[in-house]
Each structure stands twice: as C-alpha cells, then as structure tokens.
Specification:
By secondary structure, the protein is α/β, with parallel strands linked by helices. 38% of the residues lie in helices and 18% in strands. It contains 16 helices and 15 strands. The strands form four sheets. It has an eight-stranded parallel barrel with strand order 2-3-4-5-6-9-11-12, surrounded by six helices. Strand 11 (348-352), helix 13 (363-379) and strand 12 form a beta-alpha-beta unit. The longest helix is centred in the middle third of the chain and has 25 residues, at 195-219.
Length: 455
C-alpha cells in the first residue's frame, strides 16, 4: 500500500448546505406547506412539521455540530414567506431572527452564504402565477433589496436562486421519467405538465436572478453573487447510437447549458423558439455554484415524443445506487462537470453534493471518492474554491418527505434528538486537516485504499 496525501488549498471553504423550508419548521405561509396538505403529494402523506426546528432550538444545536466538524462556511437560505408573509407587509422580527442566526455563525467562525430563493414562494406570490409570469421578477427584486439591506453587514456571499432547472422540471413536467429509478418520485407545486410553460418559468427565474444580481451589487459593492446550478450528466445508453447521442445532447442543452448560456452570455428563449439576448443578464455570475449528485443514461424512445422529446432514462444495471434509488453513485462525474465549468473562467463553489444514506454505510466512501475528484480538478488548475456538503442534518426532502436521509447529523424527527454520524466524523477530520491521506482512508473506507493509493 502506497502512502500518499491529497492536500487542499489553505483558503478552501469547507461547509454544508441547508434550505429554509427543509430545516426551519412551521413555514405555513408558503406554497410548499400548502402542497404538503394535498393528498398524494408527499410520499406516505408525510409533512415538514417542525422539520429540524431551526426556528426554535435546532439551529444552535446543528451549528454546534458544524463547528465540531471544523466547518468554516455554511450555505443556508432565507424564507421569503417569513419575511414578506403578505404582499408589501414585512416582518422585521423574521429578519432579526436571521440576523441572530448569522451572528451565531460568525461566533463559530463559520462564514455564511445566503440563498434568496430555494424552491418556495409565499402563497400570495403563487396565487399571482409565481414564476410563470414575469411580474414576479420585480417582486423578487424588491424582496432581495429588503434582505440585503437588513443582512449585508453580516454576509457578502449570495446565491440568488437555487436550481431553476429542477424547479421548473419537477413543477411543470409531471411524470417525466417517473418510471426511472434514477429520478425521485413525486412532483413539486404547482404540479403542472407543460414543457413550454416549464421553459418560460426558467426564463423568468433567470431574469429574476439578473435583477437580484444587480440589486445586490448596487447595495453592496464587495458582494459575491452567483446562482446554484444543478448539473446532471447525460450519457447515451448506447454510445454508438446516433439517436441516443442526440437525446443525450438535447437533455444536456435543456437541463445544463441553458442556465450557463444565460448567466454568461445573456441568452434565453432556447431550446424552443429563437434565442434572445438580455443585456442585463449577461455576465451575472461572480462565481458559479454547482450542485452535483448523479448521472443518467438516456436512449431514444419514439413513444415519448410529446412527454420527453423522444427520450427515456435508463438505469445502469452495474451502478451502485443510493437509498431509494435516488441516483447512481458516480464520483468521476463531479470532475467531468467541474472541468466543463472550468472553461468559463469563473470561480466554482460546489454548493451541493451528497446522497441519501440512512445507515451511513455508503457516505464515507462517497465523501472520499468525490473529494478526490475535487482535489484532481484543483490540480488541473480548475478554480474550485469550496465544498458545501448536502446536508448538515437530516431534513424534509420535498416530495420524498422524511424517507431520504442526507444528513451528516442524524435527526430523530419526533424527539429532535441528534447524533453525529461516522461520516460526519470523517468530514470533520478532512475539514480540520485540509487533506485526505492514506491513514484516513484506511480508517474510514478501507475498501478504497488500493483503488485510491495503488502501490
């Protein structure tokens, strides 16, 4: 066995990521809370309820765990419906609560990254059409101004919108690949099925991103602003098939490239219809936030012309799958998407990467193998500046309810008791030492030693 060490840059950001609705609890004025009340919307009829009780005592408990893991950064989101529960009525107490949370993070030497929109809308915004209509853009800009004015002395690191592609596909393309084990079951509100409307939603969210980007920079000169972009690899099931490659290319353009082209070049309106350039959207990324989980094999399927543009997802029978068949565990894919984003010249933060693993038997190996790909990218001069693991604590996983457990911290939802998983201990050692070496792999994932350190 060879002895070796993979070092990370001394200023590397080590953290975790969370989202307000998934951890705060009691967010009863947004569209997701309303969606949870409908029959069949959440697996097993589960509800977010108190979630991880971050609006109560849970936040401090979990920040203690983050500090114990030597995290120097954390990505969290603010809840629009708490801050503006009714149109034009602001809740200053909610903003004060967020201020207290940020101060608590700083007290633990944890730098906050704030996401302004992570899947949820106030009910009053949803009733006006939500992101289906461009009239939401100025409302989101106004909300952004309110939040930044209140919190800018405690945070200068902002994510405008989380995963506009996922938001639109799961909310507006119902049952696309629902038979595919690599795709989570269930849909997001409003549960529609309209491809053109899905693409319009993406365009409006990107315009909202641009409005927020410029608003933040007007208020905070030193701000760093980006968007969290979910990228999934689409590989042809039969590499020699022109049709399978065509389907994979289509899916890649719709899911991955549209958002990149918008942020960098101001292009929207594709792939259906003519592209148009929006000047205020061009170059609206000080950095790129990358959310990466898995890849998908695709093949041509003539029967799916209307529902999925002639494409079907095909599970990889040789792949290791995470809990609930959430997706293939494919570490090399993280390097592939980092290399692709590296060509943009923008700094990259991995704003989400993780897997559901209730018994924690896969996560230690997952962490080591994925972080090895991050190390490899950095050594290829790709500007990866930080890694935010999804997630700090078990949370309400949208349409999957509580069935999928992503946390480094295990949560008993009924008692709110917590326990640091062994993978959390591993992550803490990596964050503290800023490295992965043979001895660490030997202790936490001995089955990977010969693969990672052949000798």
């Amino acid at each position: 066995m060879a002895k070796a060490t993979m070092y990370f840059p001394p200023d590397f950001k080590w953290g975790c990521a969370t989202a307000a609705h998934q951890v705060e609890g009691g967010n009863d004025k947004n569209d997701w809370w309303a969606w949870e009340q409908g029959p069949g919307h959440i697996r097993g009829g589960q509800k977010s309820g108190k979630a991880a009780d971050w609006w109560g005592k849970g936040f401090e408990k979990d920040m203690d765990f983050a500090a114990q893991m030597h995290n120097n950064a954390h990505r969290l989101s603010v809840e629009w419906s708490r801050i503006e529960p009714q149109e034009g009525r602001w809740d200053d107490a909610a903003l004060d609560r967020y201020r207290d949370m940020l101060k608590s993070m700083h007290g633990r030497n944890i730098e906050p990254m704030i996401t302004l929109h992570h899947f949820t809308n106030p009910v009053w915004v949803a009733e006006r059409g939500g992101w289906e209509t461009p009239s939401t853009v100025p409302l989101f800009e106004r909300f952004t101004v309110k939040v930044v004015e209140a919190l800018k002395d405690l945070c200068d690191f902002w994510i405008t919108i989380n995963e506009p592609n996922v938001y639109s596909i799961l909310g507006y393309m119902r049952n696309v690949d629902a038979h595919d084990p690599a795709t989570p079951q269930g849909t997001f509100p409003p549960g529609k099925d309209d491809l053109k409307l899905a693409l319009a939603v993406v365009d409006n969210m990107l315009l909202g991103h641009a409005a927020a980007y410029h608003a933040i920079h007007r208020l905070q000169e030193q701000a760093r602003v980006g968007l969290a972009h979910h990228m999934r690899l689409f590989d042809p099931f039969r590499p020699g098939s022109l049709l399978d490659r065509w389907v994979a290319g289509n899916r890649d353009r719709i899911f991955n490239q549209v958002v990149i082209d918008a942020m960098l070049h101001g292009k929207i309106g594709r792939p259906i219809g003519l592209a148009r350039r929006v000047r205020l959207l061009r170059n609206t990324a000080d950095f790129i936030g990358l959310n990466y989980y898995t890849r998908e094999y695709t093949r041509f399927d003539r029967s799916r012309a209307d529902t999925a543009m002639f494409g079907s997802a095909v599970p990889n029978p040789q792949a290791e799958m995470s809990d609930g068949n959430y997706g293939e565990i494919y570490p090399r894919g993280l390097f592939r998407v980092l290399k692709r984003l590296g060509s943009t010249g923008k700094p990259i933060y991995i704003t989400e990467n993780g897997l559901p693993d209730a018994d924690d038997d896969q996560r230690p190996c997952f962490l080591i193998t994925h972080l090895r790909q991050v190390w490899h990218a950095i050594n290829q001069s790709i500007p990866v500046m930080g890694y935010y693991h999804w997630s700090l604590v078990d949370n309400f996983e949208w349409a999957e309810g509580w069935d999928l457990r992503f946390g480094l911290v295990e949560l008993d939802v009924e008692t709110q008791e917590r326990r640091l998983r062994r993978s959390g201990e591993l992550y803490g050692e990596i964050c503290q030492s800023n490295k992965i070496d043979t001895d660490l792999v030997q202790r936490y994932a001995p089955e990977m030693v010969e693969t990672l350190f052949p000798g």
